[in-house]
Amino acid sequence: MIQIHTAKDIQNLMKNYRKEGKTIGFVPTMGFLHEGHMSLVEKARKDNDIVVMSIFVNPMQFGPGEDYEAYPRDIERDRQLAADGGVDVLFTPEPEEMYGQEPTVTASVKKRTAVLCGRSREGHFDGVATVLTKLFNLTSPTRVYFGMKDAQQVAVVDGLINDFFMDIELIPVETKREEDGLAKSSRNVNLRAEERQEAPALYQALQRGAELIRAGERDPEAVKREVRSILGKTSGVIDYAEIYSYPDLEMREPLTGKVIIAVAVQFSKARLIDNIIVDIPADQKEDL
What we know:
Helix content is 37%, strand content 20%. The protein is an alpha/beta fold. A hairpin with a 4-residue loop joins β8 and β9. One of its GO terms (molecular function) is ligase activity.
């Protein structure tokens, strides 16, 4: 595995790979790798000649009072996991490399951000779109891989690629979960023991919501009430429990087409998010 720190070096290496006709699978991360990240690498390894991973805790996507400094980091462990997992090129720039001077242009995301996490994290997805535009330009990927745990981010990336006619295929990958259903996340290490016992309620609530929709419930408010009732049994504070069309993230009543049920719960030192996608067949009628 090659490890690269500078924009110039990664760009030159990617140009050489593309000249050789090699396909490039890119997995952007903020590090502290877990099985969820490695499932993206596994998929990229199957699909491409070269697998590139970036590890960069992007300061631009953290707002005031958020956990940029506290975000878990372990680059030595991550380097070993990446190498063992089949990553060919590991890109680990410093913030000064990515944002060395005051930027002339940054991205501003206009849609799919006023709900869910974007509602309470002003500017977050502008930071995500800005750094991904930089990373996509540096790595020239054939395909990019994102976990569906952050489905809103996937929706934003979908818009970024389509709106700017990027010649990149977006590959969403199913959320990796613990045996009890908790979505794997770098932030799970911040849960207290009793909170870790409660945390699977997020997925249980989502499953119950999906079950209602599949049984014919088309009133989003009724589904949300059931989801919230399950989340309310935890000691965490419910940030949101919402249902939108996907990937547009718009209100739809009655529920039709592809929809996302998404939840966020704030525990003492960790904010957990999770979601489930439900496809409603066009010919499925609402139960009376």
